[in-house]
Amino acid sequence: MVETSQYSLKYQQLLRDLKSTVESLLVTQVANVWSIYGGLNRLHNTVEKIFVHGCKSSQEESGFFTFIQGLEWLQPETAKSYFSIDCEYRPHIPAHLKDNKPSIWLYRSLENHSLSQKLSWLLSDKNHLCSCYQSYAFLCQEKYAEAILICLRAVERNQASLMSEINPCLFLLKTNAKEFHKLHRRCSSFPDSHLKKIYEEQTCKRSDFTRIQQPARRTAQEDQYSREIETMAKYALTADGYFENKGNN
What we know:
- The protein is an all-alpha fold.
- It folds into 2 domains: 167 residues, Methane Monooxygenase Hydroxylase, Chain G, domain 1, CATH 1.20.58.900; 60 residues.
- It has 12 helices and no strands.
- Helix 1 packs parallel to helix 9, helix 2 crosses helix 6 and helix 3 runs antiparallel to helix 8.
C-alpha cells in the first residue's frame, strides 16, 4: 500500500511516541516491565492511538473492534485464545476502559505479552485489514506496521537491543531518506572498490608475466589465492556497475 507524504508526519509522530515509550520501559532493565508505575497504561494509550488511526468506521472503537475480531478465524487452532474472554473487564484494568471491549482486549494483550503475535496474524490478512482501515492508516503501511511489531517484541522479551532493527528512515522525510540511502550506499561500497583495485593490479601483473614469459611458476597456494581475489573483484566490478547505473537512472 502506498504511503502518501500527506500522512508521513503523522506516521512518524505515532512511531516516535511508541519508540520513546518502549525505551523508557526498557532502560530501567527491571525483570518485569509492568512493575514500572504507569508503564502499562502509557504503552496502552500509545498503541491504541495506532490501532484507531484510519479506522473506516465513523466510530473508531467499532472499527477497531471489527479488526481484532478477525482473530476468531485467523488464529491457528494450536494457539487459539478465547477472544470474548480477552475482552472482559477485570478490576485491575483502569475504570475508564470498563465499557470499551477493544481497549480492554488491547490492555490485556499487552499485559500478557501476546499482542505482537496477535497483531501479526491480523496483519497477515490484507483483505481483512483493508476492510477495517483506510489505505492511509498507520497499520496499512507495511514498514511502519513492521516497526510496531519490533517495539512490541522488544517489550515482550524485555530486550532493548531489538529496537535497533527499526529502519531509521521511517523517522525522516522522504527527501532526507533518499539522501540517507545515498550516503549509506557510498559507504558500504568501499570494500568493493578496494577489491576492484586489487583485481586491476592482479590483471596488470598477469599481463606483464605473459609478455616477458617469466619461466618461474607460482605455487598451487598462490594460484588459489589469485583465483579467489579475482572472483571477489569481478563481483565487486559487477556490483559497482549496478550501483552506478542505478544512480544515473
